[in-house]
Amino acid sequence: MLDCHTHTELSPDSKAKLPDMCRAAKEKGLHALAVTDHIELCRWYPQDYYKARPRNEEDFYHYAARFERSMEQNLLAKETADGFVFMNGIEMGEPDADFALAERLYRDERLDLTIASLHELPGRLDFYFLDYAKEDIPALLGDYFAELLKIAEHDCYDVLGHITYPLRYIEGTAGIPVDMGGYRDRIAAIFKTVIGKGKGIELNTSGYRQSYGKPFPDRELLCLYKDLGGSILTLGSDAHAPEDVGSGITQGLALAKACGFDRVCCYLRHEPQFITI
Ligand SMILES: [Zn+2]
Ligand SMILES: [Zn+2]
Q1: Which residues, chain by chain, have CB under 5 Å from ion ligand 1?
Q2: Is the dihedral of CA 108, 112, 118, 120 positive or negative?
Q3: Main-chain dihedrals φ then ψ at residue 58, nearest 5 degrees
Q4: How far is the CA of 84 from the centre of ligand 1 (A)?
Q5: CA angle 237, 144, 94 (to 5 degrees)
Q6: Which of 42, 235, 250, 275 has a Cα-to-Cα distance from 59 of 20 to 30 A?
């Protein structure tokens, strides 16, 4: 059991205290826990820099300061972790906003694991906030995968986070079915890039406990990744509260096995540590 994707109160959408997340990991018998608070590169600098106003209640700025607080908090937890391996991670959102910054941040020696995630397209709101009755969904998904390919090509991550994230809201919340067949080639290109660079993807199990009902990516795409030669896979619950630590990981491990994986990874100083399943 391992959980490579969790958040604390340093993320705008979580109120969880770090000691409570660690306690939950220990109680649930996790072998390894990564705390990966949101570090959004499109809002890295203070608000004045962007001459912008917050667009909603989760629109925080100056992630540079949050990053330092997160490193301080996580390194202390890493030193005192008892009974499990603690990984100091970040969920780097929107690395495409500033690839030079993304690559510099990735090389920060304090980090064990960097998950690169795309939550919003350039100049748009997080997929969470979009009104899908009014959106051109094929165009939106086309842009999402094109942007994800750009991210995959840069040295700013260990694993790509929750691939197919927009489906959480398009299919899960709005209930609009999407035929993913048309995106298969684009997704295959992303996987080939990731594999060629010696990097990995995560199986994000949050969808199991949400209306979407499936992980990100789903079985078909996870098997495609494996068939293309993908071997580096992390599993993460994306827990924002202690009760969700480790949630869906057992199901995720079973799915990984069904797709042919015989091992999964955690990370120390950006080096994958393989665990047989
Ligand atoms: Zn995310
Ligand atoms: Zn997350």
Answers
A1: 117
A2: negative
A3: -105, 10
A4: 24
A5: 65
A6: 235
pLDDT at 8 over 80: yes
Q: Inform me whether the pLDDT recorded for 57 exceeds 80.
A: no
Q: Could you give the C-alpha distances from 30 to 82, 148, 202, 206, 251, in angstroms and in order?
A: 11, 30, 17, 17, 15
Eight-class DSSP state of 264 = E
List the alpha helices (DSSP H) in the chain. 18-27, 47-50, 63-80, 99-106, 137-152, 167, 184-196, 219-227, 249-258
CA of 160 to the centre of ligand 1 (A): 10
Q: What angle do CA 197, 183, 149 make, to 5 degrees?
A: 30
Closest ligand to 237 CA? 2
Domains by residue range for the chain, with CATH: 2-276 (3.20.20.140)
Answer whether residue 58 shows pLDDT above 80.
no
User: What are the Cα distances from residue 152, in Å, to 102, 115, 276?
Assistant: 12, 11, 26
Q: 94 with 161: CB under 8 angstroms?
A: no
Q: Cα of 30 to ligand 1 centre, how many Å?
A: 21
Give me ligand 1 centre to Cα 263, in Å: 24
The predicted model scores a pTM of 0.97
Which DSSP state fits 233? Answer: E
How much of the chain, in percent, has pLDDT values that exceed 90? 96
Question: How far apart are the CA of 161 and the centre of ligand 1, in A?
Answer: 7
Predicted local distance difference test score (pLDDT) of residue 51: 85
